[in-house]
Design goal:
Blueprint lengths: L1 E5 L2 E3 L5 E8 L4 E10 L6 E7 L7 E3 L7 E6 L4 E6 L8 E10 L5 E5 L3 E5 L2
Parallel strand pairs: 2-11
Antiparallel strand pairs: 1-3, 3-8, 4-5, 4-9, 5-6, 7-8, 9-10, 9-11
């Protein structure tokens, strides 16, 4: 399974960006997909998560992004998106896609994308 992210870049404070992450490979089901972010010298932190259909596609967000970011998923394309509005300089980080995937043999594995840089600056 591979996760490929896109959509990062440079944006001014108050602006918007949408990140995309496509999961490809042999996938039976996806238990969750999520976005994390990391800045130099800090631990990777969860930004937003969306659970699979068996969990009613529930979402949860870091307090720092609630009301500004929205995670949603296109199940037909195994793609998860992160819509980021009202961006702040503090949102500057490398954003990583994460997925917990179940194979047809019932094995559960976690995967990470390569990361995409988001820079919020005037």
């Amino acid at each position: 399974v591979q996760l490929v992210e896109s959509g990062g870049g440079l944006v001014q404070p108050g602006g918007s960006l949408r990140l995309s992450c496509l999961a490809s490979g042999t996938i039976f089901s996806i238990n969750h997909m999520a976005w994390y972010r990391q800045t130099p010298g800090k631990q990777r932190e969860l930004v937003a998560m969306i659970l699979g259909e068996r969990y009613d596609s529930r979402t949860n967000y870091a307090d720092s992004v609630k009301g500004r970011f929205t995670i949603f998923r296109d199940r037909t394309k195994n793609t998860v998106y992160l819509q980021m509005n009202s961006l702040e300089p503090e949102d500057t980080a490398v954003y990583y896609c994460n997925a917990d995937v179940e194979s047809y043999r019932g094995y559960e594995s976690e995967y990470w994308g390569q990361g995409t840089q988001v820079t919020v600056s005037s």
